[in-house]
Amino acid sequence: MELIHGGDIYSARARMQGEILDFSANLNPLGLPEGVRRVLAESADACACYPDPLCRELCAAIAAHEGVPKEIVLCGNGAADLIFRLCQALRPHRALILAPTFAEYEQALRAVGCEVERHYLKEADEFCLTETILERLTPGLDLVFLCNPNNPTGQVADPGLMEEILLRCGQNGILLAADECFVDFLDEPGRHTLRAQLGESRHLLILRAFTKIYAMAGLRLGYCLCSDGALLERMAECGQPWSVSVPAQLAGVQALREHEYLKESAALIRSEREYLRRGLLALGFGVMGSRANYIFFRSPVAGLRGKLERENILIRSCKNYPGLDGRYYRVAVRTRRENSLLLAALRDCVR
């Protein structure tokens, strides 16, 4: 069975020998912060107890970090867990998603029998979200998922458009689920979050995760912010009571203290993203969007993923995203050494 996401190093190890360079998962190339490593190493004894089902210390730390009341924070086993919980709690009849976008929205919606509509992004607009989506936000729609920056394109919606979308959602009784899991990788993350609107709108839920920015994918830790307390309570009831493990809770609290790590990460991503972008353009690849920690491009070379796998390099083919085909790929921004190896392998592919 071929898995739909990147990061499947386990299958790769079964067919490859030696070092595998994984550009298919969009994780912080710095790896776990040292403080988080230390806390995890020291957490063994704490695992003899059940985790706090309310994640009290973690929720308080998140609230302080985000500048919001702790009552509007709900933690889960990664953002994907909260996406499924939201759909189970809301039981929407009709929902709107982008195409292309993150696959879990549609999977979670269909699991509760929801009618899913797609708003197709156009290559002529470089797959940017435009005002045409406003026409789709009509009465009878229950939920809209918007990933910003979008995955896999790395395109960021105009802040004014996002505010207009939220306003239209409020007028028509639609819940806007804004997935901001990649927002911390943007050059100006504060411009591209709807966090300030949480107190004004009960039709907004923001999804965030520790997965990408802190390279904590294996720990599974995410959270959502929403001023609709009744909805959060229903979402909590849709998950099992110990969904966030002791190590994940301890790691999350410590990660929020890693301010220097975030500064170093921002500088590295900014530099290496531009290095990769320029290198891909020089080789004739059509780069679009790519404002987060990954590069989205159209390849002039057929079968690119297979060619790179022969060099022990994993990239994300985007052919299974609705609205895309086998010409499109996504690669994570890694370290200079890894990025240079990728560009060298790509250079051989286009010769």
TrEMBL record:
A molecular function GO annotation: pyridoxal phosphate binding
Cofactor(s), names only, from the UniProt record: pyridoxal 5'-phosphate
Protein's pathway: Cofactor biosynthesis; adenosylcobalamin biosynthesis
Reactions this protein catalyses: O-phospho-L-threonine + H(+) = (R)-1-aminopropan-2-yl phosphate + CO2
Enzyme Commission code(s) on record: 4.1.1.81
Keywords: Cobalamin biosynthesis, Lyase, Pyridoxal phosphate
One matching Pfam family: Aminotran_1_2
Domain Aminotransferase class I/classII large: 20-340
Example GO BP: cobalamin biosynthetic process
Protein purpose: Decarboxylates L-threonine-O-3-phosphate to yield (R)-1-amino-2-propanol O-2-phosphate, the precursor for the linkage between the nucleotide loop and the corrin ring in cobalamin.
NCBIfam families found in the cross-reference section: L_thr_O3P_dcar
Name this polypeptide is given: threonine-phosphate decarboxylase
Species: Harryflintia acetispora
